[in-house]
UniProtKB/TrEMBL annotation:
<dbReference type="InterPro" id="IPR013833">
    <property type="entry name" value="Cyt_c_oxidase_su3_a-hlx"/>
</dbReference>
<feature type="transmembrane region" description="Helical">
    <location>
        <begin position="98"/>
        <end position="118"/>
    </location>
</feature>
<feature type="domain" description="Heme-copper oxidase subunit III family profile">
    <location>
        <begin position="1"/>
        <end position="198"/>
    </location>
</feature>
<keyword id="KW-0812">Transmembrane</keyword>
<dbReference type="InterPro" id="IPR024791">
    <property type="entry name" value="Cyt_c/ubiquinol_Oxase_su3"/>
</dbReference>
<feature type="transmembrane region" description="Helical">
    <location>
        <begin position="179"/>
        <end position="197"/>
    </location>
</feature>
<keyword id="KW-1003">Cell membrane</keyword>
<comment type="similarity">
    <text>Belongs to the cytochrome c oxidase subunit 3 family.</text>
</comment>
<feature type="transmembrane region" description="Helical">
    <location>
        <begin position="138"/>
        <end position="158"/>
    </location>
</feature>
<dbReference type="InterPro" id="IPR000298">
    <property type="entry name" value="Cyt_c_oxidase-like_su3"/>
</dbReference>
<dbReference type="Pfam" id="PF00510">
    <property type="entry name" value="COX3"/>
</dbReference>
<feature type="transmembrane region" description="Helical">
    <location>
        <begin position="69"/>
        <end position="86"/>
    </location>
</feature>
<feature type="transmembrane region" description="Helical">
    <location>
        <begin position="24"/>
        <end position="49"/>
    </location>
</feature>
<keyword id="KW-1133">Transmembrane helix</keyword>
<dbReference type="InterPro" id="IPR035973">
    <property type="entry name" value="Cyt_c_oxidase_su3-like_sf"/>
</dbReference>
<protein>
    <submittedName>
        <fullName>Heme-copper oxidase subunit III</fullName>
    </submittedName>
</protein>
<keyword id="KW-0472">Membrane</keyword>
Length: 198
């Protein structure tokens, strides 16, 4: 027969564990929603500025390097696809496969960031080149900061996967980081359309 003390302890454990999962499942989408509002405000501001200024780029510059940006876009979108298969692997308890795919996602994120740094280095104008320079570096820099954060989170979760039995009780952290990474990818696709295609 279970004593009232044991019953209280088990109830306390349930109360302590359940809200923690619920908070992550509820709180992280709210965080991403707030980030979305920031990005949308940037997108709208950029669109209005671009619409009101017929001469957008500095003299001698006709546009941005679309092929290079397209390659970077393919790399980032590919990382989301790889991450999707990593999520499927952890759901099926295939931990080794999960680790490989998860680490590959982080590597693709690093390659994307290197591509951004090279693009910045080779840009024909700087931050001080009027609205085009200010908005380009602000938007790509702010997004790059999110990609860097995503890579750090991916590596952190990879490290947690090396702890024996860490994901036996569930893998909510993996789901949260995956959601963040997919969010960052969607934001980049919108940025690519706004900055490079328009």
């Amino acid at each position: 027969m279970e004593s009232p003390l044991d019953s209280g302890n088990s109830l306390s454990k349930n109360l302590n564990s359940t809200p923690k999962r619920d908070n992550l499942a509820f709180g992280f989408p709210i965080f991403l929603l707030s980030e979305s509002i920031i990005f949308v405000s940037f997108f709208v501001t950029y669109a209005l500025l671009r619409w009101k200024n017929s001469t957008w780029f500095p003299p001698g510059v006709s546009g941005l390097d679309i092929p290079r940006a397209a390659i970077n876009t393919v790399i980032l979108v590919s990382s989301s696809i790889v991450l999707y298969f990593a999520e499927r692997a952890i759901a099926r308890h295939k931990l080794v496969k999960f680790r490989r795919l998860w680490l590959l996602t982080a590597a693709l994120g690093v390659i994307f960031l290197i591509g951004q740094v090279i693009e910045w280095r080779d840009m024909p104008f700087g931050l001080d080149a009027g609205l085009a320079g200010a908005t380009f570096y602000l938007l790509t820099g702010f997004h790059g900061m999110h990609v860097f954060t995503g890579v750090v989170l991916l590596l952190y979760m990879y490290g947690r996967s090396l702890v024996p039995g860490n994901y036996n009780a569930g893998h909510q952290g993996v789901s949260a980081v995956s959601l963040f990474w997919h969010f960052v990818d969607v934001i980049w696709i919108i940025l690519f359309m706004l900055l490079y295609i328009w």
